[in-house]
Q: What sequence folds into this?
């Protein structure tokens, strides 16, 4: 099975780019993103304001995908380790870490970080 381009990815105006200079090709476009607005109020480029804003929201969500996958893998693996009888403090710290990581990703996706 082919794997996706490793993250981190970054949203730019209308697209998603590879944002990892360590691989020697940061800035390579991964995807173009468009909004879906069916209104007739289109500008000269064929886009609407709502469609442009929606494209940005879509792109931020897509750009966060590698980090979301990494977080889900980490959380799933940590949950597997905490299935036994762990001290309550360890579990509390784990839940606090998961909570913080989830809200950080949500803020990134919703552009409120």
A:
């Amino acid at each position: 099975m082919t794997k996706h381009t490793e993250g981190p990815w970054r949203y730019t105006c209308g697209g998603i780019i590879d944002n990892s200079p360590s691989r020697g090709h940061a800035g390579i476009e991964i995807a173009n993103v468009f909004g879906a607005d069916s209104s007739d109020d289109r500008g000269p480029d064929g886009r609407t304001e709502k469609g442009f804003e929606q494209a940005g929201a879509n792109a931020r969500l897509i750009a966060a995908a590698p980090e979301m996958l990494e977080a889900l893998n980490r959380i799933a693996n940590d949950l597997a380790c905490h299935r036994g009888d762990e001290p309550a403090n360890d579990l509390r710290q784990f839940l606090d870490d998961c909570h913080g990581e989830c809200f950080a990703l949500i803020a990134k996706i919703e552009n409120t970080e």
